[in-house]
Amino acid sequence: GQLVESGGGLVQPGGSLRLSCAASGFTFSTYVMNWYRQAPGKEREWVAGITATGGITHYADSVKGRFTISRDNAKNTVYLQMNSLKPEDTAVYSCNALRATMGYWGKGTLVTVSS
After folding, report:
1. b/e per residue, 44-75, with b = 16+ CB within 10 A?
2. What is the pLDDT of residues 49-69, one digit of tens each?
3. Counts of helices then strands in the chain (DSSP H, E)
């Protein structure tokens, strides 16, 4: 299986970005999908998760109310809509697919929040 993230870039504080993660090589619709991030010099942090059918979502307290995770199982893609971005959101964002003991990781996309 393969995951490829896109949509990262440079954005000013208060701005928005939408990240995408395209999946291939596995049955996407049966996997829980997560977004993680890793800031420079820090450990990787879980950001958001969504169930296989998309009916339930969860968020880290640090992004709750600002970020929205969604998925389109017909397009094998998971999204992360990020609003009201802060400098502390700067990180490499990676997506993860998880089902029981099986999992896949993307290489990540860099988000930089700076004026």
Report:
1. eeebbbbebeeeeeebeeebeeebbbebebee
2. 999 998 899 999 999 999 999
3. 0, 11
